[in-house]
Specification:
Blueprint lengths: L5 E3 L22 E3 L7 E2 L12 E3 L7 E2 L12 E3 L21 E3 L21 E3 L7 E2 L12 E3 L7 E2 L12 E3 L19
Parallel strand pairs: 1-2, 2-4, 3-5, 4-6, 6-7, 7-8, 8-10, 9-11, 10-12
């Protein structure tokens, strides 16, 4: 029986992988690193049977597109790293069924705005990294489903407007980073954040 739990394929100039490349690792592989490669699209069959996967690194590629059901079978995934890519938008179903996710890193992309539905099925998310994007405004609906978030990094964006009730849904927020945003950022009363 295979016992390979961690597989690092970083820095290999990979731009595509065959559908059977992880055959036999379905119930044992927990950590997969495909960072620093040349992927520009993540296809739905790449990770389709990796039921035991807990950490997936896709950082520092050229990813501009992720097929909406690419992560649908990764029901044990806890950490997903998509930072340092070329993502402008994501399908609203992108994180469907990823109820165990605790960390999502979307930093260093080209995101202009968020969609609350991205996070509808990630109730246990604790850390969300959105730093180094092009987000210009924050509304309360963005974080509608993120009541358990503890860390939110929005540093180095273009934020100039924050809705008055933007952070009202957070129950456990401990760290909020808005460093290096628009100098004309509209005043926000951070005392309104209720920490229990």
């Amino acid at each position: 029986t295979p016992r390979l739990e961690t597989l690092v394929l970083a820095q290999n100039l990979l731009s595509d992988i065959a559908s059977n490349v992880f055959e036999g690792l379905e119930n044992v592989l927990s950590n997969l690193n495909l960072g620093y490669n040349k992927f520009n699209i993540i296809r739905s069959y790449y990770f389709q049977n990796l039921y035991s996967l807990k950490t997936l690194h896709l950082s520092s590629n050229k990813i501009s597109s992720i097929q909406f059901n690419s992560f649908v079978n990764l029901e044990n995934l806890e950490r997903l790293f998509l930072d340092d890519n070329c993502l402008v938008n994501l399908d609203w179903r992108i994180f469907s069924k990823l109820t165990k996710l605790i960390v999502i890193n979307l930093g260093k992309n080209i995101l202009i705005k968020l969609k609350s539905l991205w996070f509808r099925e990630t109730p246990n998310l604790k850390e969300l990294y959105l730093n180094d994007n092009y987000i210009s405004f924050l509304t309360s609906e963005y974080f509608e489903y993120l009541a358990n978030l503890e860390l939110l990094n929005l540093s180095n964006n273009k934020i100039k407007s924050i809705d008055l009730n933007c952070f009202q849904n957070f129950k456990n927020l401990k760290s909020l980073n808005l460093n290096d945003n628009n100098k004309e950022i509209k005043f926000y009363n951070f005392g309104r954040i209720r920490l229990e």
